[in-house]
Amino acid sequence: MAKVAFIGLGVMGYPMAGHLKARGGHDVTVYNRTAAKAEQWAAQFGGRTAATPAEAAKGQEFVFACVGNDDDLRSVTTGENGAFETITPGTIFIDNTTASAEVARELSAAAAAKGAHFIDAPVSGGQAGAENGVLTVMCGGDVEAFEKAKSVIDAYARMVGLMGPAGAGQLTKMINQICIAGLVQGLAEGIHFGKKAGLDIEKVIEVISKGAAGSWQMENRHKTMNEGKYDFGFAVDWMRKDLDIVLAEARRNGAKLPVTALVDQFYGDIQALGGNRWDTSSLLARLEK
Ligand SMILES: NC(=O)c1ccc[n+]([C@@H]2O[C@H](COP(=O)([O-])OP(=O)(O)OC[C@H]3O[C@@H](n4cnc5c(N)ncnc54)[C@H](OP(=O)(O)O)[C@@H]3O)[C@@H](O)[C@H]2O)c1
């Protein structure tokens, strides 16, 4: 049993912190900017709440965060009343936010200056993966800290990998998003074509999903795409945030990402249709409008 804090009880963080308590059996203190959510979490799982990230992190062995973007992450770490005010030598800070590799390196250096460790640990698997505790976690950081953190992270994960030094977890998550972007557009075009051809989409997917075209997106999203339902899942606004990080990194490292750049623009069209919170599978909506 470890002493753990969790900062950021959103769609992802709330159930992840819950698994650390209920499944991991850890002593968990939570902080959330909107305090009511932290109270609700404590009532449901029986942990403690703190008024600031600094208070939450005090005296903990492991401090987790899962907030929105780079700036949110800076605010809860090196900002006023941030967790880095109270972390001490040996503390391991695990960041589950999808953020840039740059901020991971910056916070890794800031943690090291205090004798603490920082692991960038973005996740894949969505809301369902968080609720069922079966996320994939891509980590960047030093080996010793990772080995200690892994046994705690295991409470909400099915796969946890160390990809390299600070930033390597975020770079791996970028590859994850690059692979998803083109794939979802392909799936949208396939379903769009099938409808125009007058085929039974359910039947088509039942057959081709068992062949070389099969994918997680096809298995889990074809039904709702076929029904035009997008009011759930991984929001287009989040995907654009992620692709923005990806394209900035590609400008730095010289990678050519023509399809990713195009699909990013398509997501801009979805936002213009009012689909900011729609699931990323809504790419089909712009083909049907
Ligand atoms: N949702 C998914 O399917 C999914 C999948 C993989 C990765 N992710 C990534 O995981 C991260 C969290 O996603 P989510 O879906 O859980 O988002 P969310 O539901 O919007 O939750 C965001 C959390 O961060 C807190 N927060 C945001 N800005 C803050 C700030 N400046 N200071 C303090 N707290 C702040 C929010 O507090 P309040 O409650 O006060 O707003 C909330 O607890 C994002 O980086 C996202 O890209 C999400």
Helix-strand layout with pairing:
Blueprint: E1 3-7, H1 13-22, E2 27-31, H2 35-45, E3 48-49, H3 53-57, E4 62-65, H4 70-77, E5 92-95, H5 101-112, E6 117-120, E7 123-124, H6 126-132, E8 135-140, H7 143-153, E9 157-164, H8 168-196, H9 201-208, H10 216-227, H11 236-253, H12 258-272, H13 283-288
Enzyme class: oxidoreductase
Pfam families: NAD_binding_11, NAD_binding_2
Organism: Sinorhizobium medicae
In short:
This protein has 13 helices and nine strands. It is of the alpha/beta class.
Written account of the structure:
The active site is at 173. This is 6-phosphogluconate dehydrogenase. The radius of gyration is 20 Å and the shape is globular. The chain folds into 2 domains: 3-164, 3-Layer(aba) Sandwich (Rossmann fold), CATH 3.40.50.720; 171-288, N-(1-d-carboxylethyl)-l-norvaline Dehydrogenase, domain 2 (Orthogonal Bundle). By secondary structure, it is of the alpha/beta class. The protein contains 13 helices and 9 strands. It has helices spanning 13-22, 35-45, 53-57, 70-77, 101-112, 126-132, 143-153, 168-196, 201-208, 216-227, 236-253, 258-272, 283-288; strands at residues 3-7, 27-31, 48-49, 62-65, 92-95, 117-120, 123-124, 135-140, 157-164. Helix 5 (101-112) links the parallel strand 5 (92-95) and strand 6 (117-120). Helix 8 (168-196) packs across helix 10 (216-227). The strands form 2 sheets. Strands 3-2-1-4-5-6 form a 6-stranded parallel β-sheet. Strands 7-8-9 form a 3-stranded mixed β-sheet. The structure holds NADP nicotinamide-adenine-dinucleotide phosphate. NADP nicotinamide-adenine-dinucleotide phosphate binds at residues 8-13, 32-34, 37, 66-68, 72, 75-76, 97-98, 123, 126-127, 234, 238. The site of NADP nicotinamide-adenine-dinucleotide phosphate has 23 residues, from helix 4 and helix 6.
